[in-house]
Amino acid sequence: MAKRSRNIYDPKSSAPFKLSRSKLEGFLKCPRCFYIDRRLGVGQPSGPPFNLNIAVDALLKKEFDTYRAKKLPHPLMVQYKIKAIPFAHPDLDTWRENFKGIQYQLPKTNFLFTGAIDDVWQLPNGELAVVDYKATSKDGEITLDDDWKIAYKRQMEMYQWLFRRNGFKVNKTGYFVYCNGRRDSNGFADVLKFKTVVIPYEGDDGWVEGVLRQAYQCLQSDQIPEAAEDCEFCSYRRDARGVE
């Protein structure tokens, strides 16, 4: 992967520097990879796009937008006894857009923290519930118990933090609308059926600002940080150098 010439952090610049939710997650996974990417301009190799997930995401947004326009609860809300309606706001399309999202500039830094959401629901008391769409295909019950899904939980908490910093009252409970592609049909016939569940998650965003400031200090330094012990990318780079 070639070295970038754009989107590189300059510690001498006061211009706002966009840092996405996914990049902060990258800092949590490995500060060294984060620094090499954001400060030195060499990012990790990207994988292929998850086009089926993207399609499910787009269709869910259209579906919920239909009920948003009517100011009515979606049938999933009724099924799961969630007293809410899809939240209507003039900035919703911007909040959903990659590379824009909902934004907040961290005080005393030039970090402009951003996150592109899937949806927001409004409760009867006016509070907002952050909603994230997920799609998969697996046997068994869908839960948030897998160790790797800690990233999903942190994602929810980062979104909650961003909305609170933008002056919204946010309920501590967010929701994952999780679509599971069924494998028990007799054939494909150009139809893939899903079973959709709504999973509540009680978030705690108390860690977000502290980690943002740690990431800021990381990029302010001229020293490359140590790698995370379990970072596969750093292990690969080290082992590859050893055999070259």
Keywords:
244 residues, alpha/beta, Lambda Exonuclease, Chain A, five-stranded mixed sheet, three-stranded mixed sheet, 8 helices, globular
Short description:
By secondary structure, this protein is an alpha/beta fold. It has eight helices and eight strands; from the N terminus they run βααααβαββββαββαα. Helix 1 crosses helix 2.
Topology:
Elements: E1 17-20, H1 21-29, H2 31-38, H3 51-70, H4 75-79, E2 85-86, H5 92-96, E3 102-105, E4 111-115, E5 119-122, E6 128-136, H6 150-165, E7 173-181, E8 194-202, H7 208-220, H8 232-243
Helix pairs in contact: 1-2
**Mean pLDDT reading:** 94
Share of helical residues = 25-40%
Instruction: Fill in the CATH topology.
Output: Lambda Exonuclease, Chain A
Instruction: Compute the separation of the termini in Å.
Output: 18 Å
CATH class wording? Alpha Beta
Biggest sheet statistics: 5 strands, mixed
Rg for CA atoms: 20 Å
